[in-house]
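Now for one specimen:
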Amino acid sequence: MSNHDIKNEEKFMGQNAWFSLFMGVTLLIISVYPLLTQTSAPLLFIGTAAFLGSFCMFVIRGGFTWKMKYHLTYKDEYLNTIDTIAYKHVVLGLLFSMGGVYLFSDDLALEVSHTMMASFYLAVMCLIYGVSILWQSKD
């Protein structure tokens, strides 16, 4: 594997991490917004604006190119290890967040809908994946 291929995969992993972070922030805004204002009428507008804003930040920060294709695994073993550890962090974070929701379920039962919880879980998974990859790739 050439040095150029490794650099391309590292760039692609960085783009995945930043995209995951921005999508996590978008989903977190969508899931928390109805609790803050006690209404969900402008949720579609806020969610669309948050998604477009986060996608623009991803394009600016990640240096998105149309040439890169999505692959399920990386050719470099070190990047595969980082990706696998990030998925393990996602599973652990999801389990802890589900456990926390279970412990506080009596207080949340009347205020939180199923769609809000689903988007909250997706936000937690995206944020943990992005932070884990960025944190591990700094080493």
The radius of gyration is 17 Å. The longest helix spans residues 3-37.
